[in-house]
Amino acid sequence: MVGVYDSGIGGLSVWKELRALMPRQDYVYVADSAHCPYGEKSPEYITGRACAVTDFLIGRGAEAVVVACNTATAAAISYLRSHYTVPFVGMEPAVKPAALASRTGVVGVLATANTFKGSLYHDTVMRYASDIRIVEKVGRGLVEAVERGEVPSELVRRYVEEMTEEGADVIVLGCTHFPFLEKEIARVAGPDVRIINPAPAVARQTARVLRSPEEGGGTAEFYSTGDPSVLMRTAVSIDPELTAEHFHQINIQ
Ligand code: DGL
Hints:
By secondary structure, this protein is α/β, with parallel strands linked by helices. Helix content is about 45%, strand content about 15%. It folds into two domains: about 1-90 and about 200-250, Rossmann fold, CATH 3.40.50; about 95-195, Rossmann fold, CATH 3.40.50.
C-alpha cells in the first residue's frame, strides 16, 4: 500500500499518475485540508503536520509515502527520511527538464513561497539551470481557489503573463494543485509555451522504491482533515468508480 499526502486535493494530480502507472497497487490518500494552505506557514509547522500524517499513513499500512506536495517536500522531506524507516518520495522541482526544453533560455516556475525558499529548489537550480534565467512566480491565491473547486482565470492570466512577458517558453508546475489549472494556464500561455508537470516522473520514482509495484487489490481510500466534498468530486473525476464510502473525514493531531 502506498500512502499519498498533500496539504489538500493537489496531490490527486500525483495519485492520478500513480494509479495510471500502477493500477493494481493499493492507495491511501490524506488531504490535510483543515491546515491548507501550507504555502506561507513555518517549516516547523509543516514538518509537524507531515509527521502526524505519516504516522496515520503508516498506521493504515503504507509501505512507502509519496509527499505529493512541493511545499511539504521542501520543508520536511529530510526530516521524514531521517526519522522513519519507510521510503519517502517527494516532489522534485522539474527545473532540469525545463532547462533542457527551453529554446529562449528563460523558464517560468509557478510555486508557493515556501517551495522557493527551500534548499531543494536552490540546489536543483544551481545544479541543472545555472545558465538559464528563471522567472519565479509565487501563485498566491491559486491553491485556495483549487481547494474550492474553482479556476481563477484572472489570477492565472496575471501570473502566466508575468512569466511569458519575460520570455519564458517553458512553465514548470511547481505545486501539485496547479495541474488542475493546466488547461487555463496553457490557454493563456499559448501553443508555443511548454508546460511541465513533474507528477509522471514522481510516479515512476515511486514504482522504483516499491518492492512489488504491480501487486495489490487496486483499492483506494481517501481521508480529509477538512470537508471531503471537493476531494471526492475531484477524485471521482479521475476514477468514476469511486463512491462516497471511499471518502472519510478525520482529525489528525
Ligand atoms: N499542493 C501543495 C504544493 O505542492 C500546495 C501547498 C499549499 O498548501 O500552499 O506545494
